[in-house]
Amino acid sequence: MTETRTVSVWQDRVKMRVHVQGAGPALLFLHGPWGLTWGPFLDALARQFTVYAPEHPGTSPGDPDAIQAVDSLWDLVLCYDELLEALGLDALAAVGHSFGAMMACEVAALRSSRIRRLALLDPIGLWRDDAPVINWMLLSPAEMAAHVFAAPDGAAARAMFAVPEDPEEGALARTRLTWAMGATGKFIWPIPDKGLKKRIHRVGAPALLVWGEADRLVPRAYAKEFAGRLRDARIEVVAGAGHAPHLEQPEATARVVAAFLKT
Amino acid sequence: MKISAFHLMPHRELPPDFERRYPSVWVTPPWGELADARRVGQYYNWTLDELLFAARAGFDGVCTNEHHQNAYGFMPSPNLMGSVLAKQTNGLDVAIVQMGMTLPTTSPPVRVAEEYGMIDCISGGRLVAGLPLGSPMDVNLAYGITPMEHRERYREAFDLVLKAWQAKEIFAWNGKYFQLGQVNLWPRPVQEPHPPVWVPGSGSISTFDFATEHNVCYCFLSYAGARAASTMMDGYWDVVDKKGLERNPYRAGFLQLVAVSETDAQAEADYAKHVEYFYHKCLHVPAQWFAPPGNQDYRSLLAANRNPVRRAEDPKTLRYKDFVNKGYVIAGSPATVRERLVEEVIKRLHVGNLMLLIQIGSMPHELTLKNTELLAREVLPGLREIWDDKGWENHWWPKSLRGARQAVPAAR
Predict the structure, then answer these.
(1) Is B409 inside a domain boundary?
(2) Is B324 a domain residue?
(3) What whole-number distance in Å separates Cα of residue B271 and Cα of residue B258?
(4) Comparing C-alpha atoms, which of B396, B11, B371, B47 is closest to residue B216?
């Protein structure tokens, strides 16, 4: 059973909602631009870890305007620092996806002792002119599915873009997805290079870079780019996955991530 | 009525298969394949000549606007055009309507206050100060402003510009987006306390609130004509009523495409291909670019998702006759155009500040002059006095120009 905790940070202006499930050492999961999906990947990790999965400010149901209290990336990093402090989490394992992986790097760069080991799933946060990251916020839904997923018509893609039949539920689902992109996009528009390259040397934790074999959003060149800048990193490629390996290949991705984080 | 000539300064010679070969007219059209700087210089000069011709022919104002990285209308600096128009119309009772310099992309925004101050000085107090939010393609895509910060940045810039024009003392501006230690505007505009302000919009409800709260002229810039705009404009007048403001028609502006010829049949012969060029090529933009995530606030986004406006028809499936029948374009003989402007636009929408797009898409220079001349000579005289019997004051027009304008016979 997932327990939900709400932690007030940032002079009480941001209520961060955290999903907690599992047993074992603490694991922080930071979701990507499309919001938090608790699925088979986090279930698998929760069998070996106590998973803490916060919702990015503004993406918690009923509290969209929380994002208005977070002006800059610096504000956001400190919100996470306050959250982890309040939860009493230290020397923990961290997993981040895409935008969430960038945030995991930022949190580790702020306070290196906070993160013991770091798994990054198709992270953003660096930029190469010869391999631009596609701005998913400019794509039509069909184009987005084709860029994010190895199988644009597969179950994972359908789940992300699923619109419930009930009109009100459908409107809420569409709004949630767009708003999650807006609330995360606020910190990376128009190019997801906001200075991590200057701070990434502060990350002390050994890192695993997990790349979907068919990531058509963030080119594979970035795996090497991250690995070259982190002190201790290796790369794992997941077959049959695009930019969201934890959604398209949850078991395989959970296996490599858990094996790395347990050591 | 005050009637102004509006110009987009479009690319007039895009290839016939443009919309099939390229994904968008905005942001990504390749200059090297589509344009030539010397030819574009000709477009700019035609544009200035056409607006000056309209000014001399009897239009009350001339309108320019700001857009970036596109072939739809590329005056990246409306004030470069506006300053030429201001200089060349000195001595004429014509307003320089800048529709205008985009606030969220001008940093610091006192630059808007300064340049508008210059135009008001050059023109002797004939400026109408359009203060637009800017389209997402211009502001978010071309100029890199974060969608979620677009409107907040606009509101701060708006307040700063208005204060910079009016403050008697030097002041410090400690904003979220802009910090200036000593604001002391040089030059100040001629018009006191500041030039009339118009805020263009495309039907967003939050802009109705903004326009009424700041007592500015709300201008609906639509390409789908008055019929499609009637619900929106009714919504605006409801907000005006609810706030207890007077239903002064000069509180509203509207842009209409017009094409006049000797007869209805001749109008089709003259303009059909240019109208189709405009709707098929100049508006060729991926739909999602009009609302990148975060550009709409959560409540507007949810409201839009709850009540999806029945998907607007795709103009690419329509032809000249459709555009005319549906009122996207008002075209035909002077009598036809006059009657439709009076009934469908001015009276139905309750509009006092009318803008007419005198040059549409690929319309060549000579034909634009013909359209403008027929409008000025045959159509405008039938519109000018529409609101005069009600005694409304056009508070949103330069004070020195509020009286009736004597039409001058156009010299070609």
Answers:
(1) no
(2) yes
(3) 10
(4) B396
Each residue's pLDDT tens digit in chain B (412 positions)?
999 999 999 999 999 999 999 999 999 999 999 999 999 999 999 999 999 999 999 999 999 999 999 999 999 999 999 999 999 999 999 999 999 999 999 999 999 999 999 999 999 999 999 999 999 999 999 999 999 999 999 999 999 999 999 999 999 999 999 999 999 999 999 999 999 999 998 777 788 999 999 999 999 998 999 988 998 899 999 999 999 999 999 999 999 999 999 999 999 999 999 999 999 999 999 999 999 999 999 988 998 888 766 556 889 999 999 999 999 999 999 999 999 999 999 999 999 999 999 999 999 999 999 999 999 999 999 999 999 999 999 999 999 999 876 655 555 5
User: Cα distance from B343 to chain A (closest Cα, Å)?
Assistant: 38
| B140 interaction partners in chain A (CB closer than 8 Å) | 189-190
CA-nearest of B76, B67, B190 to B124 is: B190
Residue spans of alpha helices (H) in B261-345? 264-277, 298-306, 320-325, 334-340
CATH of the domain at B103: 3.20.20.30
Beta carbons of A183 and B294 less than 8 Å apart: yes
Which residues in chain B have their CB less than 8 angstroms from residue A60's CB? none
Give whole-number Cα distances, B223 to B128, B249, B264, B328, in Å.
Answer: 22, 21, 21, 6
Helix (H) or strand (E) holding B179: strand B179-183
* Residue A72 near chain B (CB below 8 Å): no
Nearest Cβ partner of B147 from A67, A171, A185?
A185
Token pair of B255 as six digits: 């842009």
- A229: domain CATH number is 3.40.50.1820
Give the pTM.
0.96
In a domain, B408, yes or no: no
CA atoms of B110 and B165, how far apart (whole Å): 9
H/E element, B172? strand B171-174
CA dist., res. B199 & res. B39, Å (int)? 32
> What residue numbers bound the domain in which B272 lies?
2-401
Calculate the CA dihedral of residues A218, A224, A229, A235 and round it to 10 degrees: 100
**How close A70 comes to chain B (CA, Å)?**
12
Residues of A in contact with B294 (CB under 8 A): 179, 181-183, 185-186, 189
Residue B391 lies in a domain: yes
Contact B289, A181 (CB under 8 A): no
- List the beta strands (DSSP E) in chain A: 3-9, 14-22, 26-30, 50-54, 92-97, 115-121, 207-212, 233-238
**Number of folded domains that form chain A:** 1
Output phi, psi for B278, to 5 deg: -60, -50
Q: Give the residue on A whose Cα is nearest the Cα of B136.
A: A138
Chain A residues with CB under 8 Å of B306 CB are: 167-168, 171
Contact check, Cβ <8 Å, B148/A140 = no
Contact list, B148 vs chain A (CB under 8 Å): 67, 182-183, 185-186
Cα(A68)–Cα(A78) distance, rounded to whole angstroms? 15
Domain count within chain B: 1
